Amino acid sequence: MERINPEFEIRLIDKSYMKYILPATLSLFFTQVAPIVDALCISLGLGEEALSAITVVSPIYYFFNVIALLTGVGAGVSIAKEGGAGHRDRTGKIFTRALMLAVILSIVVSILGLIFMDPLLRVLSATPENMTYSKNYLRVMLIGFVFYVLNMGGAYVLTDDNNPNLAMAGGIVASVINIIIDVVGIFVLKWGIWIAAFGTVFGMFCSCLVYMIHFRRKERLCRIDFSPWTADDPRMWDVFRPGVPLALMNLLLVVQMVVTNMVLEDGAGTAGLSSAAVIENLELITTIITAGITESVMPLAAAYFGEGNKSCVLLVKRTALRLGLGIMVPLVSFFVIWPQAYIGLYGIKSQLALETLPTSIRIVAAGYLLMVVSEVFQNYLTSVEREKIANISFFVQSIVQIIAMLVLARWTQIYAPWLAFFLGLALQLLYLLVFGDVLEGCFKFCQEKTLLMTGGHANAEVVKDWMASAASVLSEDQANILDREMLSPFAGNLPEGKSPMSSFTIFTAEDGNKVAVLRYDSKTDYLGEEDEEDSPQEIRGKAATGNDLMRDTGPAEANESVIVLEPSAANDLVETQEQAAVNGPDPVCKRSEFNTMRRWMISFS
């Protein structure tokens, strides 16, 4: 048997990634489809002046995205890391504090927006033609934005807590309700632009109700826990730090969109803002897809990083790049070749918009090929606690885009925002390639610190081969522990006719300890239920103690039993207890679940 054969680990990553990517993408689509549906209904039902109001208000969406991403992505990745490291006692406290912060920040920002609405809309380049539309739409959105934040952030947390399907279901509910209210309110009841905003926030509220089903799951990591923060818990900054890059990206997007509105309003007035609404909806569509692909990097890579498994972290990055380019190349090609098919959905009549939109769409679509690659690298860096480089890359992209927009506006105001968008993404990717060392593992498997990697469809013979291979890289004592705590129970509990796809890896972690990891694709834990209270206190020795017997037979039987040890066995027991007093108990098998991928792990000191 080959000592290093990553085939089955790759297949498990691919399978788990696909199980995340579809629900995550659909969830993000239905979460962010609200402004797309609003724009289509408003454009067809109320006209281009009302459509331009969506462009005016759009930066507010991205500002609330900052709150959702900081709390949702930050808490989700932190929960995945703590779960991967076996610290389930910390996840509830992380979730509770993230939820409280999201609600408080959303309400405070909404109140400030309602108080200062008029000056805010003037800063966002509202024109006399669309000011009334903008105020009516924004007022309702601000009242309900707290549900938007909880819906969007909750989708990330549920995905990281092994429930992406519920996140998708919540998004579908929000979208369906929003579409029904938009169509009936605008086209049938003629209630105006405010009903589109109401449909959005009411749909998000209903989605949050769907999310609450998650708390019925016994195995969830997320739960309400107000117990005090201890010295062993991660710092609050460390909890939310994984969400900083995406939150920062959206904060910088707010600035970019404000400058874009100013340039377009100055160069083409309301018609320019209407064109921007069409482009921004294209950006929403492509962003949903790229985010669904690339943000799945974080929970998977974070779980592997929590193990200390560098080779598998790099495999996750390579999988994301392959899938990202495979999906985005055909999509971008469609928008480059047939932009008119997309423009026709909005019923645009402005001659200036019809002349300039095709070129603008081609430029923006091409930029998204660069974006999907950059976001894979950024999310990888965030997962491995190198988010500083990811953060700087966002600054590079944003600063370049803003400066380029203002410079290019001297020659072409209508195309300046989109050319600057492409240029900013190109320099951002260049920065990541030069300073991020992100190409490692992208083209070939990285074997660094991996001592054994194999796999197969597990059965007794396959597990026996794993044990033989493990004996060549572990000490005799370590091999015995591995056999007793992991491989023999696994092989012995496999049901007849069941051979789950599995991988078996031994690697050296950053702390120098050897770690053995068994992964397999199944909803069933073949070791049975874990007794969290008894396992840490068990002393693993060659002979059973009275406490062991009491656990196995029950108090009544134990009281009637007499334990007789041969002298050699008695000496072994004394030596085992003395060794345990010095070195602590032998390692025991820690288990966790990620999607349907079960993991058993033993760390040898």
What does this structure look like?
The chain is elongated, with a radius of gyration of 28 Å. The chain has two domains: 19-435, no CATH class; 450-604. Helix 1 (7-46) runs antiparallel to helix 7 (194-211) and helix 2 packs parallel to helix 10. The longest helix has 51 residues, at 244-294. It has 20 helices and five strands. A five-stranded antiparallel β-sheet has the order 1-2-3-5-4, with helices on both faces. With 605 residues, the protein is α+β, with helices and mostly antiparallel strands.
Summarize the helices and strands and which ones pair or pack.
Elements (H helix, E strand, L loop, with lengths): L6 H40 L1 H37 L3 H28 L1 H7 L7 H30 L3 H25 L5 H18 L24 H5 L3 H51 L2 H11 L2 H28 L1 H5 L7 H33 L3 H22 L7 H20 L14 E8 L2 H11 L5 H18 L7 E8 L5 E8 L24 H8 L1 H6 L6 H17 L6 E5 L2 E8 L1
Antiparallel strand pairs: 1-2, 2-3, 3-5, 4-5
Silhouette: elongated
Side by side, the strands of the main sheet go 1-2-3-5-4
Q: Provide the residue-averaged pLDDT.
A: 81
What distance lies between the first and last C-alpha atoms, to the nearest angstrom? 27 Å
Annotation field: number of helices: 20
Name the structural class. alpha+beta
Mind telling me the C-alpha Rg?
A: 28 Å
The fraction of residues assigned to DSSP E strands is 5-15%
Low-confidence stretches: 530-584
Number of E strands: 5
Instruction: Give helix % range.
Output: 55-70%
Largest sheet: 5 strands, antiparallel
> Helix and strand string, N-terminal first?
HHHHHHHHHHHHHHHEHHEEHHHEE
Overall number of structural domains = 2
